[in-house]
Amino acid sequence: TTTTTQFVRKNGSTFPVVITISQIKMGPDLFGAVLVFRDITKEKEVSQAKSEFISIASHQLRTPVSGLNWLTEGLQFTSQNLTSKQKGYVKDLSTLSKRLTELIEDLLDFSRLELKTGEVAEKHQIEVIGFIEEFVKEMGAYADSKKHSITLNAKITGHPTIEINKKALYNILQNILSNAIEYSPENTAVTINLEKTDSFVKISISNEGPLIPEDEKPHIFERFYRGESVRKVRQEGTGLGLYIVKKVIEESGGKVGFESEEGKDTMFWFTIPLKTANEIKPLPSADSSVAK
Q: What are phi and psi for residue 254, nearest 5 degrees?
């Protein structure tokens, strides 16, 4: 097993250490263990520098790409004055600029997670059913444009509440749902299921997607990983989406996984801890919101 912790130097400063424990057999009925302690200060510094570089580069790219999108939209608006060949160029330019925007957003989300910025760390109390219903409404037009429908199946009663960053939860749902739409046949439904246990809410999104090969399954949530089966359907992509999903959910105290078997729908799911009644903060009343 491997774990990461902090050690304290004589001067009181701390440094990160990875501890690896390996079992060894010393005799017929005698076992021992080897503990390896490794200072990972340099690795942490390099990782931090990489994340900071990604964050700075992404922010610097955002402005010119936004301008590119505006100019492209302007060209499309006046495309009646263009030749058919020029219209084709403008269409390709629009597609490429949108892909570049998606790439920048993925890199920004990645850097926020790695740097643990306040934007990601901030938590909100969310009433699950209402949040998902609103999400489905907002994604309806996108699903229609891709010739799909979204079905919501809520097996929950009451008003279960969770605590997670709102934008992060929306991005998680959008990531999994858009994947389900992109990688399933046209004119099929993508289903969102809501379930509740005593301490967790489980959200699953299923589609008639392609079977995920066994050799790709262990790597699905690795950063920058895109399997061969995925690239056959869609060439572009960063391989960061599901990595970000897993990291956010696990840091919120939940779990994430998927099921892909022959003859069954492909399903990605995640859980988030429920807030108990005594943990839920009441909304301020109209009187209490007035400064005295």
A: -105, -170
